[in-house]
Write a structure and sequence with these properties.
Immunoglobulin-like, mainly beta, rod-shaped, 403 residues, 3 helices, 28 strands
Length: 403
Amino acid sequence: MERMPRHILGCLLIALTAVFLPGTPPPLQAEENGGARTRGIAVAPEYAGVIVPQGERVGVNLVLENRGPASDTLLITLPEVPEGWNARVKAHDYEVTGARVGAGESRSLTFEAVPGEGVSPGEYVFPIEARTEDGTLSASSRLRVTVEAGEEAVRPRGVALSTSYPVLQGPTGAEFEFSVDVENELDRDVTFNLRARAPKNWEVRFKPAYEEKFISSLRIKAGRSRSMGVEVRPDPAAEPGEYPVRVVVGAEQARAEAELVVALTGTHKIRVGTADGLLSLNAEQGKTSTFSFFVENSGSAVQRSLRLLSFQPESWEVAFVPESIEDLAPGEIRQVEVKVTPSGQALVGDYSLSLSIRGQKVSDDLELRVTVRASSAWGWVGIGVILLVIAGLVLLFIRVGRR
């Protein structure tokens, strides 16, 4: 076989290189797409557009995603903020400009925009951009905010109040403590003055969270929030019902109010006694005697389903008239009769009889002394015996005298 000339062999090598060289990248691309993931990032608000009343703050979840094969630091910017708005990206109470996101993971942040006093109804667009720390990759999205005119337009800005439990219920004599969160929406540290508007003769005091001292002002850093306690002490003479208490937090160019409600159920008290103060009863063996006492509702709440109970010696019978009291209004007095029947075998002497009144939230007791005497029939028998003895003595003297 003859050797191929060198110039022909060189041409064949050049031709083969030209054919196969463009096809070299596909295996590498397949390796990148299948075996090793390429870098990629994304940023997007949870909702592409929101509608809010005029003057209302905007808060939307912002998702930052790392689609690459390794953890990366992603930087976030708001390149253009509409005039009159103050916008930022937050994590908890902190403003953030970037976050470390793991490979194939995402992180949830909060986009917040606070309108100024001059922001009028209309549509506002907030561009949001993210890029890797080395600047090689970037992503962007936008949030459309539509502001509508409404009642909320008159709400002052600069400070916000919120509470998880705006209504507390309890008896009139109790103290009520609300927890209120105060958020400074301004871009500077502010000392807010604290005031309250409550019903007449009510006492309202402010104190820091988890502390016992009382305050009249609260200093909060820009964009931060603090919790405070609002302690409310009702007027002891207040009737059952719902009473509003307005908390006012204010500073220069910032003011907000929150309405708290105290629901009073009234005080629960009853008093048991007798008109003359005597707590004694005379009774005979086996015979029924009657004792009267009163039950008074000395509280400010209606008492319902009052039960009358007794604790008496064995074989005694005790009955109440009436047997129970269904409803007893504040200040109302009811007369109750107790029919006591000692045992026919009871010994003569003094006994203790306990009377008890039990309600859903109240109770009271009465201790009664019962003096048991012998039956009057035995008294007549005794008198008859005495008369017979006297008659016998008289007859005896008459007979002796004749002799």
